Predict the structure.
Amino acid sequence: MSQIPVSCYIRTRDEAKRIGAVIEAAYKLVEEVLIIDCGSNDDTCKIAKEAGARVIEHKWMGNGHQKRLGEEAATYDWLLDLDADEILSSDLQDEIRALFSTTPPEPGVYSLKLVTVPPFPKGSIWNKSNLARRNKLYHRQLIRMPAHTAWDQLKIPPEIKVQQLHGSLLHYSFANIEQQMAKMNRVSSVRANETRLKSKPVLALRILFGFPFYFSKKYFKQGMYRAGIYGFACAAVIASNRWLKDVKMYEIHLAKEGRNEL
């Protein structure tokens, strides 16, 4: 199958387990794969190089800043932003390839459907649960990733109309519930410390009453009830990410008050 003039960039750190499969799927579609690695201690860089990717090693500067490195190093203006646990399905590859069948499309932004592949039961895909959309295919002359420590998603201005693609971007986001909890803990810490601090009274209300709302959004609105008992457990862990952010922001207020009392 023909490759298209798109640069795919992937941020990594200790992703040896899956990075080969991610690069292999990407190279079925795009002409260039860039790995932005921030100090892997495993064979991530070795595997990536053997798979044909161009590896850029750079210390961690923050989520958005790290993606900016990929943008600036890319050969092509059309960019595909992938995480190291996201694999392009064959349907999505065909859909994107069709956009470039004659000449590259006009500069724009395309939204991809992110579909979770849970670790249990083996071989299952949550096609109707926890679906999300991410703006991952875009033209860098039109828009750039935010130069931000925490945020790493495109901020779409009103004049840009995002177009949706329907093929699945398969997201192998966690290996077990322990890893998922650790991931949520890290994410909540970054967001608590690197985003605008909310007032103490607002945070107190969210700590007392927010968790049921965060859980309900995942479990009911995003359909995780369809995934049975394991879906219930995963929805609770994901909701804890949002709730922990509130608690950690509240701790920031308490720490400041403690310093002022000294």
